Amino acid sequence: MMLLKTDRPVFKKATSEWKDLKMQHKTFGVQLYWGGLWGVGVIYLLPILVGLFNIDNKDVGHYSLALSFIMPLSILPSIAGTSNFKSYIKAKTIPRQSFRKVVAACLLMQVGLLFCIDWIIKLFLPEEFWAVATPIKIGSFGAILHGFADFVNKFLLAKGESRFLKKVSIAVGVTQLVSALVLIKMYSATGGIIAKSLGSLVLFGCLYIFYRRKYVAGKSEGHKIVIHEDKELNTVSEVPVSE
């Protein structure tokens, strides 16, 4: 509210900013929204499925506890991608040095987790939670892949690849849902972690292959939205610019 009061924005349908906003929403924002419904929605559905396929809710706790340990592995690449987002708009590719630093840091964190998780769980948690070490170790690989995918995702967002990202998010959601229906019934909480990791594998694979083909090998410059305002017709059009 303080920012709105300070900036004093003017909301008028006749302004060029309003037309620009509508065009950006139509060609970019809404694409990410529909893709996010699948990708994020299924993630929140997984613990419900874990509880649905089990007699008690103990495995739901194990699943949530495992996620709390592995999710930090995916945060670092996402932060690195966000901090470089502005530079990605003009960059032709992701700088190799940035990629190497993120990969090295994430692998170091994962190795530390794999070697220390048994000791940490036995030190701080009672014996009935010791079994959660297995899904944590399995899920750490999926968390790393998801983090790398977020890192590449920030570059593709800066290049306006919202339509492709929507398709990938839907594919990830379908992969997680189908695999969860099978694996959770067979392996309970561990099956849920495996299903989530499979979705992360699909996400990273699709984004990285697309990035390599279009921006590394194809030398593309991405998509840019150019607003043309016709004073007589009072219309706005979108011109995608890409190689």
UniProtKB/TrEMBL annotation:
Keywords: Cell membrane, Membrane, Transmembrane, Transmembrane helix
Keyword Magnesium: no
Membrane topology according to the record: Multi-pass membrane protein
Principal location: membrane
InterPro entries, sorted: Poly_Biosynth_Transport
Record-annotated membrane-spanning stretches: 32-55, 61-81, 102-124, 193-211
Cell compartment(s), UniProt: Cell membrane
Name of the featured protein: Polysaccharide biosynthesis protein C-terminal domain-containing protein
Organism, scientific name: Candidatus Brocadia carolinensis
Phylogenetic lineage: Bacteria, Pseudomonadati, Planctomycetota, Candidatus Brocadiia, Candidatus Brocadiales
